[in-house]
Write a structure and sequence with these properties.
Number of helices: 0
Order of helices and strands: EEEEEEEEEEEEEEEEEEEEEEEEEEE
Helix content: under 10%
Largest sheet: 9 strands, parallel
Oligomer: single chain
Number of strands: 27
Radius of gyration: 17 Å
């Protein structure tokens, strides 16, 4: 929507204490909640039930104390705060995100300077090429942590795997990996 010649975006919305259930069968064109705003949106104390594409909190978003079931996950834009959520699907994190005390099926970090601590990840962790300077500390992970970028800090994590590698640094340099178990 244009207003005075400028694009008007979702901004400063509170999505709180809601129960949202998607269709029984997931669809490639159905996104449970899509927030394309410029940010400052809050998602708190909600339950989302869907097996398809996840909840997207946008840039500068806050997602706290939500439950996402049916395979649903959560995606963030830049500068978001994600805490105390439980999800069966993937948690996908953007740049400068603060992520703590969540439970997720797996984790993907796509942006730089993210700080991720005290989470339970019941699958793989992937730190993407552009996700430099990520701090990943005091997490419990049930599969391989794959690091595809430089200058990350992987410290004091409990990583349990049945495969060949607990932490796979690929061919990158400048990563600090200490005190992981």
């Amino acid at each position: 929507m244009l207003k005075n010649g400028e694009l008007e975006l979702n901004d400063h919305n509170n999505f709180t204490n809601c129960y949202v259930k998607g269709p029984e069968e997931s669809s490639g064109i159905c996104i449970l909640v899509q927030n394309m705003g410029s940010g400052h949106n809050i998602f708190e104390n909600n339950t989302f039930v869907y097996g398809g594409t996840d909840l997207n909190v946008g840039n500068y978003g806050i997602a706290k104390n939500n439950t996402l079931v049916g395979g649903c996950g959560l995606s963030t834009g830049e500068n978001s705060v994600i805490s105390d959520n439980i999800m069966e699907g993937e948690l996908s994190v953007g740049a400068n995100a603060l992520v703590y005390n969540n439970t997720a099926g797996k984790l993907k970090v796509s942006g730089k300077d993210a700080y991720i601590s005290d989470n339970v990840i019941n699958g793989t962790v992937t730190i993407a090429t552009k996700a430099t300077n990520t701090t990943f500390v005091k997490n419990n992970v049930s599969d391989t942590v794959t690091v595809n970028s430089k200058n990350n800090h992987i410290v004091e994590n409990n990583v349990t795997v049945s495969g060949d590698y607990a932490i796979d640094l690929k061919k990158n340099t400048g990563n600090t990996v200490t005190d992981n178990y």
